[in-house]
Write a structure and sequence with these properties.
Blueprint lengths: L14 H6 L4 H6 L4 E5 L13 H11 L8 H20 L2 E9 L5 E9 L3 E6 L5 H18 L6 E7 L3 E8 L4 E10 L4 H12 L6
Parallel strand pairs: 1-7, 4-5
Antiparallel strand pairs: 2-3, 3-4, 5-6, 6-7
Helix pairs in contact: 3-4, 4-6
């Protein structure tokens, strides 16, 4: 199938538009000369103390039975944001919410959460709790970030989240390959493991 039928060169696309496309993910990414692979990623973990973990876990476990997860705002405000706020505490990262990016007519829109130390990390909320379509959007936003940020970071990393489930992805800027992690992190069951991955990626002392 010709790539022109996947993405129309004369049409404007926002990041959210890619969530709605029914084409295969590898065909969408091929338009940007990017390949896709799916495998389990060996993600490093932070080994230090997580002094807020007990409190965060308790707050999430208390709120989940009373929280309607049909609302995108509820998932972002009560599940995703609390995790990211603790990541800021451990890493001293900066956080931009709804960060606008405009690379081209096909690569533009707002990034849900952009965290930065010496590393740049992207988090987006999976609309309609759809991880598969959400990952396509994450991949497109990582491709846009590659052209947007002034950084020598060889691999751009990000995560898609429904609030209760997180999935990581990576974009190798040299090989132009997106990797979708097959492993999922559940909240609150895998909260400690999730935090240790996020903190390790962004911690100031991390060697690059």
């Amino acid at each position: 199938m010709p790539r022109a039928t996947i993405i129309q060169p004369d049409q404007s696309y926002t990041f959210a538009d890619y969530f709605k496309l029914d084409f295969a993910p590898q065909d969408i990414l091929a338009y940007f000369n990017v390949s896709l692979q799916r495998r389990s990623l060996e993600l490093p973990r932070y080994s230090g103390t997580l002094d807020r973990l007990t409190d965060l876990t308790a707050r999430i476990e208390e709120s989940l039975p009373r929280l309607s997860l049909t609302s995108e705002m509820a998932r972002r405000e009560f599940l995703i944001a609390p995790v990211l706020m603790d990541v800021l505490h451990y890493t001293q990262a900066t956080l931009n919410v709804e960060y606008p990016v405009a690379v081209s007519n096909q690569l533009k829109g707002s990034l849900d959460y952009l965290l930065q130390t010496h590393q740049t990390f992207l988090v987006i909320e999976a609309k309609n709790e759809d991880l598969e379509r959400g990952f396509i959007q994450l991949a497109i936003e990582l491709i846009a970030l590659d052209q947007w940020i002034d950084s020598e970071q060889p691999i751009l990393q990000g995560a898609i989240s429904t609030g209760t489930i997180w999935q990581f992805g990576q974009f190798d800027r040299q090989s132009r390959e997106v990797t979708q992690n097959l492993d999922l992190y559940r909240v609150p069951a895998d909260l400690e493991d999730l935090l240790r991955v996020l903190v390790r990626i962004l911690e100031p002392s991390r060697e690059t």
